[in-house]
Write a structure and sequence with these properties.
- By secondary structure, this protein is mainly β.
- It has 3 domains: 31-149, Immunoglobulin-like (Sandwich); 163-329, Cupredoxins -  blue copper proteins (Immunoglobulin-like, Sandwich), CATH 2.60.40.420; 349-521, Immunoglobulin-like (Sandwich), CATH 2.60.40.
- It is built from 6 helices and 33 strands.
- The strands form 7 sheets. Strands 9, 10, 12, 14, 15, 16 and 18 form a 7-stranded mixed β-sheet that branches. The chain has a 6-stranded mixed β-sheet with strand order 22-21-26-31-28-29, with no helix packed on it.
- Strand 23, helix 5 (387-392) and strand 24 (417-418) form a beta-alpha-beta unit.
- It is globular.
- The protein starts with a helix and ends in a 35-residue tail after the last strand.
- Residues 1-26 have low confidence and may be disordered.
Length: 556
């Protein structure tokens, strides 16, 4: 029996349907699922028991080890006695500030309830981390590494390492996070940290057993993040060279260093080859720019070693000039691909016309007898209704006013105003942001939702003439940048990611006391090409409870 035209047409239609289904299945990026039970527990990271916030009983929390474009589903069960949110430091949440985990974007997960984050780590590779964003909870633990690998067909500009080590290093306080918050609320400071931790361990526990096991002749990747809240750190490995390869999602020119400064909130990756005499060697981190240096070591052990590390540690660098010069040596790898196949250098950031300059000066002062920090005279406070929800529901009246912060700092001596702080940025405009730090101590700033180009930095106050010193060719695209004491730093970026995005100091004392603001970037097209609709599972609180949903975004 031969097939007739109708049977052949039907078969062809079935084959086409199966082919389209196969394409659809292939087009769906993989999903990774996590269940996190967040609860108090007792640990002794500094040698004495203290109450901490743990994820599934662990500190640090579970590593999110994934590939670019993976869908990440994290179901968070809040078993502590406070509202809770997690933010994903450096993850851009393209078109989805709904998942960003900051108090201005989302209602908190209340005690005894759960919430599921549904995220796609779209077009990103590199080293990042997560942590709780409400109050001083970040000082109680619950942070962890995010490691995003390139897709198989995207070339990586170095050979696969023998192993990939996560290194979460930072200062640590033994005071309970609620005590730290109370101290700040009553006008006191949080003081000096008790010490340093590497991957949640003190010096004794980081060396026995060894934290890093290597074999002679092989090369290893170290993903380092400064997860502290107070101090810059310098990292180095006894007798070994550090070859920088990645910084906050960008491949870098592969310069070699004896040591590297990592400022609060920053992440980087370096390669180190086990090319010394087999034995034990110290991985070292020490504080920078504060009186009374604190140091922590962890052991890196060659296979078969029975030789202890040398007692003498390599010295950390001294002074600000060394750190600034090292920053100037960091370069974007223009020929390497990042998350996408096109070379990083195909984006000529230095040739784009600047449409607006926002100069932000930090300040501190007393408000009602208590210390506050501010940007351009406004000290941010979180309202009961998250800013993003108030904006989406057109319910901003009584919640916040736009643009209390202007594009230039107020006159010196202007009283600090405490209020929700939201500035607007026109969608798809190229904006220069200048941070000025008049303080005697270093600051670092992070912008959620974006990476930016840190084009320049220098002493004193910024002027238009300062642009002559900019690197307009190959500065590294990143999400966190330092501002040295009594100095300025200038960054540039295209505001093409619609949403409500937090810009903040990473010194958590300053963040808690108001040195932050939100940037509202809205698409006038109300198009799904620019921003996703509010997820069905979004929590509601404050003024928007019970309000009808606004018209959804559509494909324009």
């Amino acid at each position: 029996m031969t097939a007739g035209p109708k049977m052949r047409a039907g078969a062809a239609t079935a084959v086409l349907a199966l082919a389209l289904l196969a394409v659809a299945v292939r087009a769906e990026d993989p999903y990774l699922f996590f269940d996190w039970k967040v609860a108090y527990g007792t640990k002794s990271p500094m040698g004495t028991p203290q109450k901490m916030i743990l994820i599934n009983g662990e500190f640090p929390g579970p590593t999110i080890n994934c590939t670019s474009n993976n869908n990440i589903i994290v179901n968070v069960f809040n078993q502590i006695d406070q509202p809770l949110l997690f933010t994903w430091h450096g993850i851009q949440q393209r078109k989805a500030s709904w998942q960003d985990g900051m108090p201005g974007d989302m209602c908190p997960i209340l005690p005894g309830t759960n919430f599921t984050y549904k995220m796609q780590f779209k077009d990103q590779i590199g080293t990042f981390f997560y942590y709780p964003s409400i109050g001083m909870q970040r000082a109680a633990g619950a942070y962890g590494l995010i490691s995003i690998h390139s897709r198989p067909l995207i070339p990586v500009p170095f050979d696969p390492p023998a192993d990939d080590f996560g290194v979460l290093v930072g200062d640590w306080y033994t005071k309970d996070h609620t005590v730290l918050a109370k101290n700040l609320d009553t006008g006191k400071g949080i003081g000096r940290p008790a010490g340093l931790l590497i991957n949640g361990k003190n010096e004794k526990d980081a060396s026995n057993p060894p934290m890093f096991n290597v074999e002679a002749g092989k090369t290893y990747r170290f993903r380092v993040c400064n997860v502290g809240i107070k101090t810059t750190l310098n990292v180095r490995i006894q007798g070994h060279v550090l070859k920088l390869v990645e910084m906050e999602g960008s491949h870098t020119v592969q310069n070699e260093y004896d040591s590297m400064d990592v400022h609060i909130g920053q992440c980087l990756s370096f390669l180190s080859t086990a090319n010394q005499k087999p034995g034990d060697y110290f991985f070292i981190a020490s504080t920078r720019f504060i009186k009374g240096v604190s140091t922590i070591t962890a052991v890196m052990r060659y296979k078969g070693s029975n030789t202890p590390p040398a007692a003498k540690l390599p010295d950390a660098p001294d002074g600000w000039a060394w750190s600034i010069n090292q920053w100037r040596s960091f370069r974007w790898n223009l020929t390497a691909s990042a998350a996408r196949p096109n070379p990083q250098g195909s984006y000529h950031y230095g040739q784009i016309n600047i449409t607006r300059t926002i100069k932000l000066s930090s300040s501190r002062g007393k408000v009602d007898g208590k210390e506050r920090y501010a940007l351009n005279g406004v000290s941010h406070t979180d309202p009961e209704t998250p800013l993003k929800l108030a904006e989406y529901f057109n319910a901003t009246k009584g919640v916040f006013e736009y643009n209390l912060v202007t594009d230039t700092p107020p006159k010196e001596g202007t009283p600090i105003k405490v209020a929700p702080s939201v500035i607007t940025a026109e969608h798809r405009t190229y904006i220069e942001i200048v941070f000025e730090n008049p303080e005697k101590s270093i600051d670092t700033f992070h912008l959620n939702g974006y990476a930016f180009f840190a084009a320049g930095m220098g002493p004193g106050l910024w002027t238009v003439e300062s642009r002559k010193t900019y690197n307009l060719l190959d500065t590294v695209s990143r999400h966190t940048i330092q501002v040295y004491p009594r100095s300025w730093t200038a960054v540039m970026l295209t505001f093409d990611n619609a949403g409500m995005w937090n810009l903040r100091s990473n010194l958590w004392e300053r963040y808690y006391l108001g040195e932050q603001l939100y940037v509202s970037c809205t698409s006038p097209a109300r198009s799904l090409r620019d921003e996703y609709n509010m997820p069905d599972n979004s929590l509601r609180c404050g003024k928007v409870v019970g309000m009808p949903l606004p018209p959804p975004y559509t494909i324009a």
